[in-house]
From TrEMBL:
Highest taxon in the source lineage: Bacteria
PANTHER family: 3-OXOACYL-(ACYL-CARRIER-PROTEIN) REDUCTASE, 3-OXOACYL-[ACYL-CARRIER-PROTEIN] REDUCTASE FABG
Protein name, UniProt field: D-xylose 1-dehydrogenase
Family per record: Belongs to the short-chain dehydrogenases/reductases (SDR) family.
Its EC number(s): 1.1.1.175
Length: 260
């Protein structure tokens, strides 16, 4: 393809999503950012990225808890760039609690954002991708799409669901040059991880250092947090011709966590 690719990365105002959007823009893709946060800070991220990468970077503040918002965001992105080549479903939240105390509204919110939003965006993007005979869909899953940890019932259930969705979409797109893959990070030090430290301290009666070393990195044999740039690099690879025959896969970037 000689024309610039158009990408949409959900939850790209911070963390992994921002790193993926940055890598895509710097590789010459036009990008739609999405996510929550301070309007001024987001505009600053958008304008700096646009200037530094020399591509068009737009922002859509859709709250992806709602189906219509997911659909509207995809339609606007297609309207702005004429098509959608690359869709990254990354927006996600976490909540940590023993299941008997797990708030029902937290379960509903995690399933809505971490699983259902991906269904809604893919549903809205798929027809155009099939018609154009090109699409690369990347779902940011987790090591928790493959294995469980206690106190994360909603997150683990949602991420296992993301893998099922990924494989199904991969089969549906296979004959249309639409690829769908997942990336399964281990622990990446972002606000999402930072935010669950106090809850894990409370749920397990541990100190902050104990949570980091004995809970979070206990599962990661390298004893290192994954860097957001490393996830971005894998995402960029999945949009490259070298990855054209990778379909329905989950690429684990977890320092060996799920090898154990
Ligand atoms: P983060 O908190 O830094 O970023 C989450 C993004 O999602 C932000 O841009 C936020 O604004 C956005 N978001 C939150 N609620 C939203 C909503 N209702 N609508 C739209 N956007 C919303 O988190 P992160 O660590 O970068 O996580 C990104 C993804 O990676 C998530 O799906 C997460 O489950 C996954 N993941 C993270 C880790 C990790 O260790 N950080 C590990 C495995 C998987």
């Amino acid at each position: 393809m000689s024309e610039r690719k158009a990408a949409l990365v959900t939850g790209s105002t911070s963390g992994i999503g921002l790193a993926v959007a940055t890598a895509f823009a710097k590789a010459g893709m036009d990008v739609t950012l999405n996510g929550l946060g301070d309007a001024g800070e987001i505009e600053s991220i958008r304008s700096v990225l646009e200037r530094e990468a020399g591509v068009t970077v737009r922002y859509d503040g859709a709250n992806l808890m709602q189906a219509e918002a997911c659909t509207g965001m995809v339609e606007s992105a297609i309207g702005a760039f004429g098509r959608l080549d690359v869709l990254v479903n990354n927006a996600g939240i976490q909540f940590v609690s023993p299941i008997e105390d797990f708030p029902v509204e937290k379960w509903n919110a995690i399933i809505a954002l971490n699983l259902s939003a991906s269904f809604h965006t893919i549903r809205a993007a798929m027809r155009g991708m099939k018609e154009r005979r090109y699409g690369r869909i990347i779902n940011i899953a987790s090591a928790h799409a493959h294995v469980a940890s206690p106190f994360k019932s909603a997150y683990v259930a949602a991420k296992h669901g993301v893998l099922g969705l990924t494989k199904t979409v991969a089969l549906e797109g296979a004959m249309f040059n639409v690829r769908c893959n997942a990336i399964s990070p281990g622990y990446v030090f972002t606000t999402l991880v930072e935010g669950q430290i106090p809850d894990t301290m409370k749920a397990r009666g541990l100190t902050r250092d104990q949570v980091i070393n004995d809970v979070l990195l206990a599962a990661q044999p390298t004893k290192e947090f994954v860097k957001v740039e490393q996830i971005a690099g894998v995402a960029l690879f999945l949009t490259s011709p070298a990855a054209d025959e990778i379909n329905g896969a989950a690429l684990n970037v977890d320092g060996g966590w799920t090898a154990a």
